[in-house]
Amino acid sequence: MGNLVKDCPDISQIAFWDVDFSKIDFRKNDLFVMEKVANYGSWTDFIETVRFYGTDLFKQKIIGSAYLKKDVLNFLCVVFELDQNDFTCYTRRQSPNLPWKY
What we know:
By secondary structure, the protein is an all-alpha fold. It is built from 5 helices and no strands.
């Protein structure tokens, strides 16, 4: 038989509680999948997602993420040797809320 290309990573559905997992196009919606797994998936899911997309593509795509938790952002900086300023979600983050002045 020829080479079989997997259509999706071998991951749990934990991070995808709010969507129909069976309808996700893992190729078209790669950044969506990467964000969800990075923010809400298990360690095993993260490793499998990076393996599925490849380290270079994962790194290239994840920096364009609209939202990453702060601890996830810090982790990705260490793992991929990036700076927080490389991430769209960090550079777009609003300044912290200041107390109301009465």
